[in-house]
Amino acid sequence: MTRERPVLRFRHPVEHDHLATVRLLEAWWEPKQARATLQRHWFRHFAATCWLAETADGRTAALVVGFVSQERPEAARLHLVAVDPNLRRAGVGRELVARFAASAQERGAQRLEAVVWAGDRSAIDFLRAVGFVPIEPEGGSRIYGTPAFADYDHDADDMAVLTLDVEGPGPIGG
Ligand SMILES: CC(C)(COP(=O)(O)OP(=O)(O)OC[C@H]1O[C@@H](n2cnc3c(N)ncnc32)[C@H](O)[C@@H]1OP(=O)(O)O)[C@@H](O)C(=O)NCCC(=O)NCCS
Question: Where is pLDDT greater, at 125 or 3?
Fold first, then answer.
């Protein structure tokens, strides 16, 4: 069931936001994974396609991180969406993906891509719910029930690659 949506203010991050944001992410997530996922360069070099959501008292409640590809400018890579565990299931993640999509679209992207571990059921369910569709690997391979690519990032790093077209009005807004 969808919770009542908190009042949030959205802004692009600046480099100075990095340390406080990664500390929050460490509290929301496994700390080592948080540090490996959100390095400083994201806010230094990709801030225009990243967003922070803040509560009325200025606390960071959620973030989305991603970039428009240099090699494939029609594609934008969604790197991370994370929401304060106390504020989940209220549409905040969906709103952040929509904001990322709009920022990427402004820069010419027509498609979002996300890559997640094939066994991460909640991430895959969330991405599907906001409109992403997994790419079917040749041979139709499934890992943990999801179309996924074996050894995608490293041995046994089996990943699902999901895409969402953002050319027209899509299902993100729910
Ligand atoms: C995944 C995450 C970003 C979702 O954020 P959220 O604000 O709770 O998401 P929303 O409320 O916008 O959810 C939109 C829809 O996604 C689906 N969804 C969200 N979280 C889900 C979960 N844990 N399991 C299954 N479906 C989920 C639901 O269909 C939901 O709609 P509903 O609440 O009306 O049923 C949040 O749980 C999170 O920070 N997880 C840890 C980081 C992560 O896994 N990020 C995703 C991959 S980068």
Answer: 125
